[in-house]
Amino acid sequence: MEKEKKLNPSLPSGFEDRWDKKLVLKKQLLKEIENNFIKFGAEPLETPSFEISENIGSFLAEDEANPMSDVFNFKDGDKSITLRYDLSSPLARFVAQNNQELPSVYKRYAIQNVFRNEKSGNGRYREFMQADFDIIGNTNPAQANAELCNLITNTLSDCGLNKEQFTINVSNRKIVQGLINELNISEEKQLKVIRAIDKLDKPGFGLMGVEALLKKERKDASGAVTKGADLNDDQVKQILDFLKIKDLKELKQKLTNKLSQEGIKELEDFFEVIGFGNAKDQVQTNFTIVRGLAYYDGFIVETNLNFKVTNNKGKEVDIGSICSGGAYAKLISRFKGVDIPGTGISFGVDRLLFALNQLDQIKIKEQKPVLVCVMDQKYLKNYYELVDELRSNNINSEVFLDTKKNLGKQLTYANKRGLLLAIICGENEFKDNTVTIKDLQGTKGENNKTISRKELIDEVKKFI
Fold it and tell me: Is-above-0.85 flag for pTM?
């Protein structure tokens, strides 16, 4: 008889199980993020994991020959469907579908998993959670975009970061688009140029890497070749000169075309409004950020951490932006034929979690249960009376689930789970109407305390 083949308990690349303290911290972050979304006036929205492919579009794609190469795409009868790669494209479809029922300015938040069929590692996953906040409708752009930066500052502070530990970088897509138009760069090359510029601060790129991508091709350290935008020398020089400018006033003098000037004015208006809130010291201009997604066309924002992050081997890595986004005017008009402007941000929850797990300053708020030990099966009813009393007083608790295990094995179970307290009641305690509380984190020999039954709740609350 052929021996049964045993399965290998493993995951595909780019996917991860999360449990124990890591998952507790993630849920803690999600609670802080959602509380801030609600505090800033947004309403929740949940959309399906799949969208019709033509509706969700291919705004992520870098491979022109295969625009769906970066997403998970499937046949569904006579249609093609795609696992959502962000939460903005589904939002556009939802607003177009439900526009008559929504307020003139619609603030929504969504916290859901997204899926990207791309290289994983160093805090990057193929399935990961995003937490999005968007403002849809005709607003004063300066106010709406400043509100996004106020929200980022509040949220990251509530998640446990000091203000010195993150920087909010802003720019405006119109600035670089105006330069591209002025240089007469053909439409089919424009997205390649924008994505080349967006890689300036990525590891291994810099000005030389961007220059190679603006020219014919770039060969990386592994020998892999990426096709470039194939610009002429003058076009490349003017773009590289633009990337060296750091000051808004200098930029205003150098770029005189109408569209760039419009983007600069929008940034000036933004900085006036951001000065009214508590985020002004967190925000700085960075004209090299343009955002790789194709639908951004105005204000753009990226939030970066100012501390070192290492991978599992202890090597320092760049995890990129932990909260990014921007303004878009055409995303909804693909459905409606009418431009409905929007602006929004997205927290990369799992990427943020990857970084925060490396800091000792974030206190994890675990609520481990109290263990009610089973000393004798004949008292099982009494043990459930004890646990019911604890739970009715909002104390997490459980009865040990095997009456045949001795006390030592029950305490081994409690210690392995990192529990704080065990309640021990045997024949003597029930006869005297007392309980013994064992402090599982206390000093051996000094960690047992016998009290009257009526003191149980007050005494347990001292430990939790």
Answer: yes
